[in-house]
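Deviations from the work plan: none for this task. Representative record:
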Amino acid sequence: MNVLLILIPVALFLGLAGLAAFLWALNSGQFDDLDRAAHSVLMEDDAPTEED
Amino acid sequence: MTVAALGDGFEASSTGGVNADDPFASFVTTNDDGSRSLSAFVRNIVCAACVQRVERILRKSPGVRDARVNMTTHRLQVRWDPALTTSETLLEKLSNAGYPAVPILEDLLSDAAAADRRLLRCMAVAGFASANVMLLSVGVWAGFDMGDATRSLLHWISAAIAMPAVAYAGRPFFYSAISSLRGRRLNMDVPITLAILLAVGLSVVQTIIGGHQVYFEASVGLLFFLLIGRYLDRRARRKAQDVGEHLLALSAASATVIDPAGVRRILPAYQVQAGMCIEVLPGDQIPVDGHVLSGRSDVDLSLVNGETVPRAIGAGDLVYAGTVNRTGSLQITVSGAGENTLLQEIVRLMEDAQQVKSGYVRLADRAAALYAPVVHILALAAFVLWAFVLGAGAAKGLLIAIAVLIITCPCALGLAVPVVQVVASGWLFRKGILLKEGDALERLAQIDTVVFDKTGTLTTGALRLLNTDAVDAGDLALAGRLASGSRHPLAVALAAYAASEDPLAVREEPGRGLEHCGTDGVIRLGSREWCGVTQSIDVPDGPELWLRRTDGTTIQFCFEGTLRSDAVETVRQLKVAGLDIAILSGDAAPSVQRAAETLGVSDWSAECKPQEKIQRLQDLAQNGRRVLMVGDGLNDAPALGAAYVSMSPASAMHLSQTAADLVFQGEGLVAVPTAIRIARMSRRLIIQNFTLSTLYNMIAVPLAVGGLVTPLIAAVAMSASSLVVTLNALRLRLGTSP
């Protein structure tokens, strides 16, 4: 049972890391505009020319 | 107010330099580093490419530090250096590129996003806690050779995770339960709060005394499931809220005020006061009620009174907020702001009408009102039974009462109804129908009568020439060639008859008509007066136009509105669905009758004033009818508020869209039967889910009262019932073929 003393902290640490990552993403506004992220792959990067 | 027009107006008054006073000063905020920022609602954004173009246009402008468009809400946030550029320049650039933007005041908009985040944070914390506590309790239940000390350790760790998590993530329920109890009502959050708090409290006691009845995983798991439901519910309403905010942003449009020194300044419409002088350029919506000081134009009143054809307006005439200035520039003295304006009168009527409607109670709340007392009484009965009747002691009785509370916890109400709502509103959204009220879908499922407004709803803004047979083909072609030079709706309808001949060069006199000076004389097209008509020919019930040839003969053209292309099909589908159809119009009787006959509708009324429309709807309601009102004009807004449920096209007046429960986009009316079908399907699913969860309770509650439920069974049974109702709700997706 001594292995629990290692495994439980490891499990908790991983869970907390996931939670922290999610909260960070939430606070940095990554969930504010989900449509845009979905389309971002279709957008060009900083194109040097503009058609108009 | 388009910003391009503002730019033109400003050339004369502002110095044109970068330090000129900012006309949008009241919308702009200055940041700590000296840069300025502005929020605006950008129109005409349809896709990702639009977002990118808007951002690129702004970022390429000198002085812009950052520009970002939210694709979901179409809201622009731009930050710039005030020494290098102005908000006016930036918005003008956008307008020239075809993306007019309306500045918005940040604090006018709700903090929906902040509330969303709070709920997501709670959900994340509950998810983390339930995963970890579940992990530990699997160990407890599967650990056959586990000693008391190890089990106790696992219980203590669970307690350390669960207690802060419940305290944090349970707040949405706790606050709601407290406010409900303060109002001396019982809502669903009361038994939820009670179950969670009692379960955690009892588990802590059991952990301290080294007992086996530990419910941590059930309580955090329950919290997690319910938070998912709550978040889905919020998200479904969020889209609706965004629509509302757009409307708010648009109706809080700005006005160009000319001060006595002749300097133009742009103010938010609500800051404009009586007696001020404002300027309205062609193409802009008039932001206030007032008298025309100078200028002449055609004003489009269609959104106010349903008239299809613009009215000629000159100095001294009264104009109303919400109407659109078509052809000429107008200077307007603002009349008594507030109480006595037409808009206020309509708003008052609408609010009165809506008060009646607000009595509707959502299905889930009605179920909760029945369910919550039953749950409490059952739990109390179980406690009394075990503690006193069977003499098992207070501790055992409490344990069983908690098991009853957890087992009966309303997952079907908390999770399955929101899932149905989310799936249904997502489906509606893809069909271009926006739900503005959370309970509109339920009400829509119950209707038995549909009442249409005519102008703008059954008909489009486009006009059709009526008397083609009575008019000589040559005259028609001539009128068409003349009309090609104008964008007046009547002229547009006539221009179609110009055939392939070249348009004639014309001079347009706003509010009167067109004039062509050719080699052999003057040809005029326009009003009776403009063409000098002397014969006493009856004014037709629809709009008319006159042509005066060089020889002085005058020819009359009569028009009527055209029905939407799918109006007939829509009415047929609604009749097949077993609904009664009626038309309530403010228009003249003959044209309403023609439309009603084409559509096969026998119940129609014409020349209805807003009060009469409300009266008709109230009469129907008193006869036990549940009416869906579909309308678009300002004159429909009170009726939209009075109906059991209401729909309005996205082309409608802002006030009508605000009053309507659903707003549909696109040219077609087919959205009406579609929305009704989806509403009926989701109502069926919600009722199925209630039945399922009642069945589940009928099996589980006797077991719980009988003392046969361990914490493990409680947790498993609860999750299983949640899954079943959620999966059932998702069946709505399977039936998404149109």
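The interface with chain B takes residues 1, 4, 8, 11-12, 15-16, 18-19, 22-23, 26-27, 31-36, 39-40, 42-44, 47, 50, 52 of chain A (CB under 8 Å).
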